[in-house]
Automatic annotation (TrEMBL):
This is LacI family transcriptional regulator. Gene3D superfamilies: 3.40.50.2300, lambda repressor-like DNA-binding domains. SUPFAM superfamilies: lambda repressor-like DNA-binding domains, Periplasmic binding protein-like I. It comes from Dactylosporangium siamense. PANTHER family: HTH-TYPE TRANSCRIPTIONAL REPRESSOR PURR-RELATED, LACI-RELATED TRANSCRIPTIONAL REPRESSOR. The lineage of its organism: Bacteria, Bacillati, Actinomycetota, Actinomycetes, Micromonosporales. Residues 8-62 form the HTH lacI-type domain. The keyword Transmembrane does not apply.
């Protein structure tokens, strides 16, 4: 990868070597249990990609005295489970950052509607909390903050509370994805979108980016072209089937996450259609499998590991300096053009 293309990641090293992220990390940490074959493959991938581990931020373990563990809590949801390719990368990034400071990670799920507090907060087992959620729940966060627990939010915001927010620039990413389809010639009809539920903040922001791209071209959004999913393959496939059932189906669809795009790809194939010859598909997140679909998926790359690591760095600083002003950190995203998008078919 060249410098202009952006810095290579551990996930890319793992993909090049044909191993898991955990195995690649173990090789770079000189763990003895990794096989010689895997070790050689990872070292070769590191050399080919010019991979360099991220340097630690100017915060040391001594900067947060007495902190031996931080909590990572996520809302009870199919979107946030350890088997989710997106969630797993975020959690891995947070764990790697903690390991650099000899801090452990305590992970648990929560249900804000049930009231109460996460067990790690009730038992004062952690020095701070990372909260991953797709929608704001001010009352829940207020209960946590009232205990004096420092917090950093991932992927959502509550602007009137003393917490930091770390997220990707989803409006810009959705704008890039939609503009890419428009530049290919998908203007009559304009691209459709499969986004998430209305209460999901990333879905709201990505829909806004899609709408901005259409508006700049003077195109009118068609209500029937805006479909909802749960950001998973099953509902992505169902939403794609609804679009294909329209009297004038779109020639391109922006799926607001890669798992929805994988479901959409299945739905297109089930109709005997081809991607991108009959319909172009673009995803979002650049999960590991996106590069290995048939055809490889054009998508918007979001650095999920960095999201988790950045949240840890902010949390350690907030533990050290509890009176810091709230910070809203937006991580850049970039378009990755693969083979699932092309010019519209000739009618």
């Amino acid at each position: 990868m060249t410098e202009a293309q952006g810095r290579s990641t551990l996930r890319e090293v793992a993909e090049r070597a044909g191993v898991s992220i955990g195995t690649a990390s173990a090789v770079l940490s000189d763990k003895t249990w990794v096989s010689a074959k895997a070790r050689a493959a990872v070292r070769s991938a590191v050399d080919e990609l010019g991979y360099r581990p991220r340097s630690s931020r100017p915060v040391t373990a001594a900067a947060a005295p007495g902190v031996s563990s931080i909590g990572f809590v996520s809302q009870i949801s199919e979107m946030f489970v350890p088997t989710s390719p997106y969630f797993a990368s975020v959690l891995f990034g947070a764990q790697q950052a903690c390991a650099r400071f000899n801090i452990s990670t305590n992970y648990e799920v929560f249900d804000p509607a049930a009231g109460g507090l996460p067990l790690s907060v009730q038992r004062r087992q952690v020095g701070g909390l990372l909260v991953l959620s797709h929608a704001s729940d001010r009352a829940f966060l207020r209960r946590i903050i009232d205990t004096g627990m420092p917090c950093v939010l991932l992927e959502h915001e509550v602007t009137d509370l003393p917490v930091d927010y770390v997220r990707h620039d989803d409006e810009a990413g959705a704008y890039q994805a939609t503009t890419h389809l428009l530049d290919l010639g998908h203007t009559d009809p304009a691209p459709a979108i499969i986004t998430g539920r209305a209460e999901v903040l990333p879905a709201q922001v990505r829909l806004a980016g899609y709408r901005r791209a259409l508006a700049e071209r003077g195109l009118t959004e068609r209500p029937e072209h805006v479909r909802r999913s749960n950001f998973d393959t099953r509902t992505g496939a169902a939403a794609m089937a609804e679009l294909l059932d329209l009297r004038q189906p779109p020639t391109a669809v922006f799926c607001a996450n890669d798992e929805s795009a994988l479901g959409a790809l299945e739905a297109v194939r089930a109709r005997g259609l081809r991607v991108p010859e009959d319909i172009s598909l673009i995803g979002y997140d650049d999960i590991a499998m996106a590069a290995h679909t048939v055809p490889p998926l054009t998508t918007v790359a979001a650095d999920k590991e960095l999201l988790g690591a950045q949240a840890v760095w902010h949390l350690l600083e907030r533990i050290q300096q509890p009176r810091l002003s709230s910070r809203d950190t937006s991580l850049a995203v970039r378009l990755v053009h693969r083979a699932s998008t092309a010019a519209p078919p000739t009618r």
